[in-house]
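Table 4 source record.
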Amino acid sequence: MARFHLEHGPIPLHHQVYLDVRAALDAGEWRPGDQLPPERELAGRYGCSLITVRRALGDLAREGRLQRTRGRGTIVTLPKIIRDLSSTLSFAQEMALQGLEPGTKLLGAVRARADETAAAALDIEPGAPTYRLERLRSAGGLPLLLEQVELPADPFPDLLTADLEHGSLYDFLAARYGCQIVSLRETIEPVLPPSREAGLLNQSPRRPMLLLVGTAYTDEGRPVEYSRTYVPGDRSKLLIETRGRWARGLRSIRGTAKSSNDSEDALLLAGDRAGDRASGQR
């Protein structure tokens, strides 16, 4: 017997099934990792055809709510966590707004020497003393991103005395040293992660991740942090909000400019404005 009465009318039957299954997922009737009943059982539940059920499940799979695998059936997936790259909120605040319990595990905090890449980013000499920090950030108990951070040591004596596992690094820099980080210039690219980093994030090294490489700046334009952050693409959505001339520049880069001069202006604008985005507290 059908538990949900489908009505013939302007709303397609498959969309009615989609709405009811989605509501059941939102209510926790099926949780991440659970297997949905077989399609034939769902068809009986709704009093509809297998084709109708398959279309509804297909829509939910495209949204990332379900994973359909031959031989395993239909599995409920964990909703992707949204990271707003233009937000001024801390990681913990962002996760709390999504109803998730944030977590940080400090994997390493040592004094080191800057290699050429870090030295160039931080505007210091190669071999200059730095602090290297590595933290695994999680949400809802699931590893979400791996941060590898390097800061110049001279401006921040005793940095390693900070509570880097429970407190905000940026809050500590502001309170202890009067260092306010206000902007971040960052690149994003898909990469195949090293085996160690993939293992820490419970991912296969053969599965691409997003690598965010950035430099954080004070209001005086001084670079104080160089970071590399690995983000599994199947767990996160990155949100970028653009406004004004920068948004128009993006449209030009995407091919809607009317002239080559417009495109050149947009590319220059992209480079000039990449560091203007306010950085969230780490």
